[in-house]
Amino acid sequence: MPISETDPASYVTAARAPEDFDSFWASTLSFDEPLDARFEPVWARAITVHDVTFNGFGGQPVKAWLAVPTGTTTRLPCVVEFPGYGGGRGLPHQCLLYAAAGYAHLFMDVRGQGSGWRAGDTPDANAGDPQHPGFMTRGVLDPSTYYYRRVIADAVRAVQAARVHPLVDPTRVAVTGISQGGGLTLAVAGLVPDLVAAAPDVPFLCDFRRGCDVAPAGPYPELVRYLAIHRDRAERVFDTLAYFDGVHFAARATSPALFSIALMDESCPPSTGYAAYHAYAGPRELSVYPFNGHEGGEATHDAVRLRFLDDAFSR
């Protein structure tokens, strides 16, 4: 663990949102294109999985899976989940936990990813200027072209897509994800006001400057290596990243939240997770795993999260 992480729980971010943060996102989410969500059953056992396509940012098609218990005839609470960095939606049988618990579950693909650890099917049509390998520096010189503008807009649309399915109760939708998925969870919680709950685990995309300063592994060093070459661009890069910081989304989120943080996490240093946790505007709970790295609580925390969601959906 980096030496500067000796007391991460006391860390409070110095990051400040741009003055036009809210208007930037209001403009980004003013979609001209219809959602056009389509659901095709592709796999059925005790759980039925639908191949989902919906129009994301710029009207570009985004893939997902929607899993529901087979034989369901009534509307179900729904968990919308976002994958970790480099991963995609995978295969239909890889994400069955929430459907096995009796919920509907939409698992969103992430554009351009899905070749790092789980396969994906959604291209990124806006690849943009030269970048450091990975996704952190794609279009990073301007908020309007930055990669995560498109991904976050897709994530908001994923919630909209889940809500139009006839087996989903649109008033009972929660969001969750691990790492990058945790950062996207915070973004959606800050942009969609009527969610039932949010559960970000070991969240990435929080307090970018702090992450660059202390993370010895994972995606934050992509930014460091980019700036080591482009020495004159640091201010411009961090000005862009401020529009995508999970800390600022957390400050706008009001649904009940369950965070998890791992104190030996070198990819998403615990102080960055605490930064978002302390900034979170709604009711919040925290599970801390002192002896784990970026894997976090894994199956142990799955059980904690399921109890949290059970409570949230029953309110």
Automatic annotation (TrEMBL):
Binding site for substrate: Y85
Domain (Acetyl xylan esterase) ranges: 10-309
Active site (UniProt): S179, D265, H294
UniProt GO BP: polysaccharide metabolic process
Gene3D superfamilies: alpha/beta hydrolase (3.40.50.1820)
InterPro entries per record: AB_hydrolase_fold, AXE1_dom, CE7
GO molecular function: carboxylic ester hydrolase activity
Short name of any one Pfam family annotated for the protein: AXE1
Superkingdom to which the source organism belongs: Bacteria
Listed name of the protein: Acetylxylan esterase
